[in-house]
Amino acid sequence: MTTSFTLPTELQQLLTTEQAWHYTVIPKEVNGNSICLYVDESASPNGIADELELLLGKTIILEAASSELIKKNLGKYYLRNTRETAKDKSTKALSAKSGEDFLPSLIAEAKQLGSSDIHIETFEERARVRIRIDGLLVERYAISKSDYPALVNKIKIRANLDIAEKRLPQDGRIFFQQENMKFDIRVSVLPTLHGEKVVLRLLSNDATSIDIRTLGFTDVQLEDYLDGVKRPHGILLISGPTGSGKTTTLYATLKLLNKETTNILTVEDPIEYTLEGINQVQLKESIGLTFAGTLRTFLRQDPDIIMLGEIRDAETAQMAVRAALTGHLVLSTIHTNSAWGTVSRLVDMGVPPFLIANTLNTSVAQRLVRLLCPHCRKEKELARSAFPRHFKLPRPIEKISVPGGCEQCYYTGYRGRKAIYEVVPIDSELSECIKLMNDFPAEIYKQRNIHTLSESAFRLLENGETSVDEIYSILSHAHN
Prior knowledge:
alpha/beta
């Protein structure tokens, strides 16, 4: 018998996580009033059927299966908190039938499993809950169509949103507090064809545990980055797609700069972390509190350092440059594919190249890469066809690591993520390139030993920390 099969969420929910692990059983099928369960052939089945019949109120049929099948699918479908870093290991048994307790228990469970987002969505025939773990969505619960509107309304009430408004998108915020957990949740409600979809972003309030030295910078990159941070004025920009860890890098930087002698102001949407000693402003565009408007006020607040959550329009870009020209250090993020691409993005926003050359002191690009689980990764011979066609290997490599699958990584083969960086300190030669709007300065990069994102990604592959599949898209955009 194969050790891998697909377990529909509806079947999965017949048992709670606690029940599945306690009895080492996996649902196979439901026939009328009876449930067929796979049970570990090495376990003693005495009394299991009777106990489960009492718990579930249905006739139980047990079918012996290999320990490997049971163990693998328990780890895959009945996620338990196996992360050493978790403060509370007693993950509460949870089912979509938990009624009033379902929403707070779902949020607590997602937080314990290290999830960043919860997606609650409805379709023509069914509704479901998915959670994002290490960057990928996993289906966790199926919800009946009749229970779905009540769940959405509970979220709206907690987020102070209008429960009568079902035609327009809404955004809100929930402060979640339960036992030893305290954090903010950003709520986004979107009207779709079959009802409202809700996304809950779980925000990590406390920035005191972030350490810039553990994020993923190499020694040379960290030295170049900190040189830019220590300058009294100018712009330091971090680029990358949504969810690439830019805000975490910025807060690790603010933590270093946060001193009694310094006035630090931030404007964000949303405020993802809180730091004692920093003045943080939550963006509210609906009432006119925009990035550009807030930045204009910041300049009258005697700041030393300003952090903008994102440069997303021409007015904000020009205000950021003006703040840097008047003697302030400005930290922000921007959406581009590479550190050098930041320059053309600012030009597209209407900032003259000579002003960029005079104010930009460091440009950084970053991505988050999933790391292979150290408990189950495997080695295999390198096949050149595994890499993008136009990618040139910077160094010969004989073997690569590939994902395995074990209980520690929920049988995904990956555990945790690490940031990779491209750090470009802007010196006089690169400033000249910016003024002349030159293309990617490959020779200058090599002379200064600046590692591109693809080179940083390849280094992780070389060290056996990640797989080719995980970094394929980064390598395909390499400047060879």
